[in-house]
Amino acid sequence: MEQSQEIQVGDQIIVQRQGYTKLHKLKKHGNMVIGKFTVQMDNIIGQKYFDTFQMKNYSQNNKLYILEKVEDGKNVGNAVNIETSGMDNRNIVSDESAQTLTKDDIDELQNSELNSNAIVEKLINNSKTFNMKTEYSQEKYIKKKEKKYFEYLQIRKPTIRLLTNMFYRQDPTKTLGIRIDDLSQILTYANIHSDGNHLLYDSGSSGLMSAAVMNAIGANTSGTLIHMHPGNECQKNAFLAMQFPEEQTHRCINVNLYSVLRCFYQNKNSFVDNICNDTEDKSEGEPEPKKAKLDGEPTQLTPKEPQWKLDNESACKILNNKCDSLIVTAKEHPVNIVKELLQFLQGGRQMVVFSVTKEPLQDLFIYLKGRLDIIAIKLSNNFLRNYQVLPERTHPEMMMNTGGFILSAVKLNS
Known about the structure:
alpha/beta
């Protein structure tokens, strides 16, 4: 079933203000803090995704802003008219005297009418040094002020790309340092497809890996994901943000690593027998006659099994038939984890292990080299390099890292 294109109460949305994005669960009469602005979100309910809204001052509260739908957000750089530019910045003294407007004047201007074009234009007109700056410095100044006073928001539907970039920008450690280029390579090497059974061990990506795999499997398919994690509860911020349909959510089985392995070893020989016995009982067995309940006889209720136990049994039945891929994104050293989980991978299938540092993967590389059933072992560090593209100023971005390391291999048929 296709998701609605209208914004509704309870939806997980991404609010974008220029390059800044924030995940928010929409509530009726709810507010959202973005930067230093507190915004009332009621006016976006019933509107379309990708619509643009302008923040307006609320008449009864100067610190609260309401949203008003507009056709498109205006660019300050195109609206401001730059008359003259200097040759260099050598004679410019940067101090408080360069701006004749005081902080109180700017605050009053901002409270009276939040309009980035008007605010930036008045800041430029009251700056003693703006016309002395070079054209490049003037552009930087306008972009800096535009970023501070920009009043347009765009409402977007969460996607894997948006969530990956947002989590990475906020705190890379919360997603194990996985960037969008790392994620795309992991899914490609693992050969995720819609009708396979996939095995994932994830110990700290805020649900990003499980969300990405389930998104690749797709809705209304037969594919399943066994998501193993080390704690009592798995991390699922990104998974919930994707708002998968209920049938797709049920095909992601979240189990504790140690609990499901214990269940598998204790009942290893009974999974197939249990399935056969259940089928025979349903097809051949006759229903038992109901017994009349006597007055005063205590009612005996069958205790309901906990959900984690049912999930363990479902996962063990799939593990008994082997999986089509193995992905490990762990904070822990991966050798022992991979050594334990490789038995559940079918022959001729891929395994992928991600780590921010290369030393754990080097140890894993040596271990896999010693096995006769593992081939095509590859340890790589391919990353997407972002470039600034401007006239006469095209170069790689200065503040960036090289992503993580990925080990991929293929298991042979035994």
